[in-house]
Amino acid sequence: MHLILRTLLTLLLFFSCTSASNSSSSDLSSDFYSLTCPNVQLFVRNTVRFYSANDGTVPGKLLRLIFHDCMVEGCDASVLIQGNGTERTDPANLSLGGFDVVESAKRLIEVMCPGTVSCADILVLAARDAVEITGGPLVQVPLGRKDGKVSLASNVRPNIIDTSFSVEEMAKTFSSKGLSMEDLVVLSGAHTIGLSHCTSFSDRFQKDANGSLAPVDASMEKNFASELMKQCPANATAPTTVSCDPVTPNQFDNQYYTNLLTGKGLLKSDSELINDPKAEAFVESLSKNQSSFFDSWAESFVKMTSIGVKTGDDKGEIRAICSSVNG
């Protein structure tokens, strides 16, 4: 009996080592930390809830943060790294937030499960929980990502969506990441929560002869455009933000799609989605059925958070601190 057990343990160790050295995105699994850190999801969820209870903007920040991470170097927490020339220094990332939430969760987890859980997995879980605590679905996400060792500002602009993009440009970027037109429309639904700076949609207005703003985008509903001009006056001296969803700004729901169909999409890139017949069909469908949106969101979110994952020891690491690589 002892010989049989010893043989089985030897085989298990062999296959574990083989799996680690030849790992890929298929190595991600929902129970990855079931033995090494079984309460990791509870630790992250409680941290997100604590910060969100004190600051209602946290869920939107975390959701935006995961997009800006996954679309550049893959979902490897490279956006969290600080330093000259890192992704965080690109102008598109200067307004990102939620870093303190991830760092706080990491510090807790390092006490309970030292050297075990990656910042990349913590970020994915935090973004997942941001959706759930604002009324969205609780998505079962696979885990096991390693943290990336590379973070370059020069990699940001070629890989992220700009608010001025056409639907064709957005679809091309998403396609390069293995995401479809449907994924583009579904994941754009992240704009059902969160805030946007006035500068992000200033190209939809222009100053008239009196120095006041006037809309130049005829697709915007008139009352919505007027309200935006009040919130973002031409003579504003401080950075101002407005809700991405003017109807249910703090609720993760399918209202975003109704907004698009009624001319209340905040960003030009939002409104572009109804300028393509295929994308518009998805928009209309999702606007009519929130359950369908939630199901589609879960599927597309898992696909996005599996982009370019690093699972082998030769490709990544488990950072001790999320804001800097080890060593």
From TrEMBL:
UniProt cofactor note: Binds 1 heme b (iron(II)-protoporphyrin IX) group per subunit. Binds 2 calcium ions per subunit.
Disulphide connectivity of cysteines: 37-113, 70-75, 119-322, 198-232
Plant heme peroxidase family profile domain sequence ranges: 27-326
Metal-binding keyword on record: yes
Binding site for Ca(2+) 1: 69, 72, 74, 76, 78, 87
Binding site for Ca(2+) 2: 192, 245, 248, 253
Enzyme class: oxidoreductase
Catalytic residue positions: 68
Gene Ontology cellular-component terms listed: extracellular region
Record protein name field: Peroxidase
Taxonomic classification: Eukaryota, Viridiplantae, Streptophyta, Embryophyta, Tracheophyta
